[in-house]
Write a structure and sequence with these properties.
about 260 residues, alpha/beta, Aminopeptidase, two-stranded antiparallel sheet
Length: about 260
């Protein structure tokens, strides 16, 4: 593994340069279905002002920096469902868009066993700059879309698309899929049951992660507080290794989501 260079400035106000990509992309704007898809960890880009955060390039390719395969999966799922999709552009190592600002995992100083030197000892201004440039615009766009759909009486079913590493801290995960939720399981339980009914897949019920106010942002804020039917889906990353894999899983998930929605109340 090659060494990394030191991160430059801690980057306060004006984190993103004018020629850098926006913190999110939108696909299928104007889609007709009730499904609204989000992908909080789709991208792995780093703002130029932050350099490489002191992290080796090999590590920036790993699951600690993004959800491998999630972007392709979400794009294919959006096409199949005729669903609106918003995806995050920047790495979760810069700021995690599925963590409440200020919690330890929001701007991690260590991920799994990898140190993130460029995230150590940040000032309040540097933290606020990352929130202002990346976190808040992403979530404001989601909120704006939900509000617009409500205004035109278009139902909204929120689906958060993630992927998870097959091995974490040297522990293999047995699940192929995870269905995640918090207080509201109206969509999650039917989806879990539909997935399990095939008999082919190990489906985690709030595994390998569980939704909570302490560790999650998108589902509690946009789903639960908004009263929307919602679910977070995890697919194991080795199942999403190729574009063909991502398409196949999008087709499965699209069918399962439509079946689960019909069963939900």
């Amino acid at each position: 593994m090659t060494g990394s260079t030191a991160a430059p400035s801690r980057a306060g106000p004006g984190l993103l340069a004018a020629d850098e990509p926006a913190p999110f992309t939108v696909e299928n704007a104007g889609a007709a279905s009730p499904f609204l898809l989000i992908s909080d960890h789709a991208g792995r880009r780093l703002p130029r002002a932050l350099g490489d955060l002191g992290v080796a390039e090999d590590d920036l390719q790993r699951h600690i920096a993004w959800d491998l395969g999630a972007a392709g999966l979400a794009s294919q799922l959006a096409r199949g469902l005729d669903a609106w999709l918003i995806q995050q552009t920047y790495s979760r190592l810069v700021i995690d868009c599925n963590r409440p600002p200020g919690v330890p995992g929001s701007i991690p100083v260590r991920s799994e066993r990898t140190e993130i030197p460029g995230n150590r000892d940040l000032s309040a201004a540097a933290r606020a700059a990352r929130e202002a440039a990346i976190f808040h615009p992403y979530h404001a766009r989601i909120a704006a879309e939900i509000e617009a759909r409500q205004a035109r009486s278009q139902p909204t079913v929120l689906v958060s698309v993630h992927s998870f590493t097959p091995v974490y801290m040297e522990q293999a995960r047995r699940w192929h899929l995870g269905v995640l939720y918090g207080r509201d399981a109206r969509l999650a339980h039917p989806l879990r049951d539909v997935m399990r009914s095939t008999g082919e897949w190990q489906v985690g019920d709030n595994e390998p992660y569980a939704v909570s106010d302490a560790t999650d942002y998108a589902v509690p804020v946009h789903g639960e507080r908004g009263g929307l039917r919602h679910v977070a889906i995890e697919v194991r990353q080795d199942l999403l290794a190729t574009a063909e894999d991502q398409l196949a899983w999008a087709e499965r998930l699209g069918t399962w989501l439509e079946q689960a929605l019909a069963l939900s109340s």
